[in-house]
Amino acid sequence: MKLIQITILLIGCIALLGNCTKTHQKSAPYSMLNPKDFQVSINGKATNLYQLKNGDITMFVTNFGARVVSLLVPDRKGEYEDIVLGFSSIDDYLSANEVYHGAIIGRVANRIDKGKFTLDSIEYTLPVNNKTNQLHGGAGGFHNVVWDVRSVNDTSIVFKYTSIDGEMGYPGNLNVEVMYQLSLQNEWIISYKANTDKRTPVMLTSHAFFNLRGEKGGTINDHVLMINADRYIEVNETLIPTGRIPSVEGTVLDFRTPKIIGTDLPKQSEDVQLTNGGGYDHNWPINKQMPEEMGFAGYVYEPESGRKMELFTEESVLLFYGGNFMDGSDVGKYGNSLKYRESFCLEAQGYPGALNQPGFPSIILGPEDTYQTRTIYEFSVVDRLVP
Questions:
Q1: Fold for domain 35-381?
Q2: Given the residues 101, 136, 143, 207, the one annotated as active site
Q3: pLDDT, position 385
Q4: ∠ CA 125-126-127 to the nearest 5 degrees?
Q5: Can you give the residue ranges of every domain in the chain?
Q6: Sheet with 345-349, side-by-side order of all strands
Q7: pTM (2 decimals)?
Q8: Looking at 81, 98, 342, 347, which residue is catalytic?
Q9: Quick one: pLDDT band at residue 6, thresholds 50, 70, 90?
């Protein structure tokens, strides 16, 4: 009897040791993040690193830009990889060539033509930071400020920021709250809320860069993309919307049927839209019955790992960006160069160009209104893709 007990005990210890080893291996990708590297002061405000965990996913965020630093999800073998690109310190974020990694974008995501718009008969001139246009709220946009942490627990965090009247050229004092929440269903839920004391444009989004194989996963052109949209927003050579919203039928922007991202990129030199975007850097109005309902926008699937990321949103437009401007000059948190078309963005937002296209739905928020919207990234693993 004692021999049997000892044998069982030994088997249990060996199994426990094996499990401990396996857990340690799975933890390794994110154990290298040091909170001290995120504890600095910027313009008199302290930054820090925060961990969220629920279900099968773990997220690290910082209040500098309300950024997602790291997002760990399993593959079909149960092995974890960090699928959000980023850096291992605040200093690296400050010195990066690509300044939007993982950040909340505002006041207005995307580009504003020549940095100008007219509201209530007043013309506003904004500082430009992208050729002749303002991009993502300008150099001092929400990606580049320290947010207050209103609350935090194991599964959620709430960021708060007040953008004062005149900041980056925009009218009105704008109070913004953004909550990140992880669910047991392996969802990353982003809830936005804002109010103002003066009419002002507001269009927020999250600018996480993904590679579903991880930072060292190589090209994203072999990922599979599906976009639930019958039309796309046409852009000119500076990526400003022309006002036209044509059908995707027969174009390289038709992703209604799942398609490998790189399938039509060889046509870039002959397709005007791919030429203007330097590849894919476009917006699609999402197919919905009601504009503000929570609806399915699309997904990205990576066949090797089996990871699938679906996006649901109350926003009206989905942006897909294929990493066309990444040039390898930035080095990510695992020591790899962040190269051309080795990451992508999938962003839910309002209509880009709405400030200068009267036919587009308005993005103006008044003092009597509340800006409130949600976007959900849902992560799963599938053996094969079923359209």
A1: Beta-galactosidase; Chain A, domain 5 (2.70.98)
A2: 207
A3: 73
A4: 130
A5: 1-31, 35-381
A6: 281-285, 317-321, 345-349
A7: 0.91
A8: 347
A9: very low
